[in-house]
């Protein structure tokens, strides 16, 4: 477990995102120009989204830099210490890498169910039997929703093992 001050984390993330968003905005200059006169080019919508995100990141940065001029005050606003559980972060990173590496070999439906099940079973605050049961049900329903959304409706070619790729 690592402990940080709340304000330091928010300031670091704000500066990091401001630099990253500036870099992404610079990268949009390499996008192609409009083919038709009077129409925006390929960079129009990415720049619009980047400017919107940049605007809210600047507000977050200013809010935490000048704490007396708080724009939004909530009950949860505090300067307490934040505890970051790096073991949980590494575990999530590890199973995400396994998911990516074995997607072709095991298949979308099996691996998605297992990924969601592993994430949920340890986080439900129930006894083990109920946690396994609820995690199985939620993982199965989520996997079916993902399958319908991405493979059936959007026709994204994920590797499947037993579910059909098309429904006629």
Distance between the termini: 52 Å
**Rg (CA only):** 22 Å
Main sheet: strands, sense, barrel = 2 strands, antiparallel
Give the structural class. mainly alpha
Question: How helix-rich are the residues, as a percent range?
Answer: 55-70%
- How do the strands of the widest beta sheet line up side by side? 1-2
- The tally of domains stands at 2
Uncertain segments are none
What do you see in this structure?
With 168 residues, the chain is mainly alpha-helical. The protein has 2 domains: 2-83, no CATH class; 85-153, no CATH class. Helices cover 62% and strands 5% of the residues. The chain contains 6 helices and 2 strands. It has helices at residues 6-27, 44-65, 86-101, 103-106, 108-121, 128-153, and strands spanning 2-5, 81-84. The chain has a two-stranded antiparallel ribbon with strand order 1-2.
Name its key features.
168 residues, mainly alpha, 2 domains, two-stranded antiparallel sheet, 6 helices
Task: Write the SSE topology.
Blueprint (H helix, E strand, L loop, with lengths): L1 E4 H22 L16 H22 L15 E4 L1 H16 L1 H4 L1 H14 L6 H26 L15
Provide a concise account of the structure shown.
The protein is mainly alpha-helical.
